[in-house]
Amino acid sequence: VTFQRAYHSGFSTGFNVAEAVNFATSSWIPYGIKSLERYRSLRRESVIDVEKTLLVATLYSEAEAISETHARLMLLLIRWIRAVEHVTRAHNIKISSSRHDKDTDREDGRVLCCYCQHANHLCYIASSTLPHLQACPEHVAALGEVDVKSLYLVTRLSTKDLTRLTAICNAALAWHTAATHRIVIAPALVSLSTVVAQATAPSARRKVGASCP
């Protein structure tokens, strides 16, 4: 087990076959976001594609399995994508909902920002005159002096997808609100049931009968 923001390493003294599995609870998400900020500041590629992890976990999870932190973060990402698309349209830049094969030659399909090395799973900016060179929306200037007409925004999520994700996240938040309400009133219900049980117990009835004339 490796705790958040902790260094870890391993070594082998000979031939071996090893396997590692990365998994985390929803409480890891804030640390994952902070790690992205650190990687980007160092201009290094992150080990885990956090954007992809959050997206897949949202699409293939039941509402009650999505934590409040997860849902609120996805809603922020959705608003960010919509804002990026709004600015893109304002500058008459084309928007594509499908990734171009020429944008990456990596086996894992990752598209890295040419400046900060961030893995752009949700969206990125590219130019038709600069093959294999892409940038995250924050670092478009890293593409250099290119004709605006050659630029295009590639987004993995369509308007329909964003609407669906919004509904999933709102359903998750609604479930947690209802669950919190159930937790708050549960002690009162337990106390009431305890009182009723005590009042209807045989010993309690005998005491009541003894006090009657």
Describe it for me?
The structure is a single chain. This protein has helices at residues 29-41, 50-59, 68-90, 159-199, 202-211; strands spanning 94-96, 123-127, 134-135, 151-155. With 213 residues, it is an alpha+beta fold. Strands 1-4-2-3 form a 4-stranded mixed β-sheet, covered by helices on one side. Helix 3 packs antiparallel against helix 4 (159-199). The longest helix has 41 residues, at 159-199. It starts with 28 loop residues before the first helix and ends with a helix. Residues 207-213 have low confidence and may be disordered.
Low-confidence stretches are: 207-213
**How far apart are the termini?**
70 Å
Strand order within the widest sheet?
1-4-2-3
Structural class: alpha+beta
User: Helix and strand succession?
Assistant: HHHEEEEHH
> How large a portion of the residues is in β-strands, by DSSP E?
5-15%
